[in-house]
């Protein structure tokens, strides 16, 4: 069975939205698939795709062939993950300032009697 990683079209007329799927290469474009590994919205500006990189690499290691567009999406998402992890590694962790040590002074407990009046001292 020849497996491919390709786009499955969803959405309305003139408003395409794609899911990145792993499918048998003989099945139709919007037909049966094995696994959904991501999404792609070409109309959205900026970061317009989500992808499970580990699952894509798993299927490619098993011999799946990615389409040209999916190969481009994998490349972009890998670059974004690498830049995000480098950014997180370069920032020093923010630690909260230690709280000042204040001596615990016992507060006098105000007890009330059953009638609601404070006790007489």
Layout of helices and strands, plus pairs?
Elements: E1 3-12, E2 15-24, E3 35-40, E4 49-51, H1 53-61, E5 65-66, H2 68-90
Parallel strand pairs: 1-5
Antiparallel strand pairs: 1-2, 2-3, 3-4
Major pleated sheet: 5 strands, mixed
> What would you report as the Rg, rounded to the nearest angstrom?
29 Å
Strand content: 25-35%
> How helical, in percent, are the residues?
25-40%
CATH 4th-level superfamily: Ribosomal protein S16
What is the overall silhouette? elongated
CATH fold call? S16 Ribosomal Protein, Chain: A
Overview of this protein structure:
The chain has 121 residues and is α+β, with helices and mostly antiparallel strands. It has a single domain (3-89), classed as S16 Ribosomal Protein, Chain: A (2-Layer Sandwich), CATH 3.30.1320.10. Helices cover 26% and strands 26% of the residues. It is built from 2 helices and 5 strands; from the N terminus they run E-E-E-E-H-E-H. It has helices spanning 53-61, 68-90, and strands spanning 3-12, 15-24, 35-40, 49-51, 65-66. A 5-stranded mixed sheet has the order 4-3-2-1-5. Strand 1 (3-12) and strand 2 (15-24) form a beta hairpin. The radius of gyration is 29 Å and the shape is elongated. The N and C termini lie far apart (92 Å).
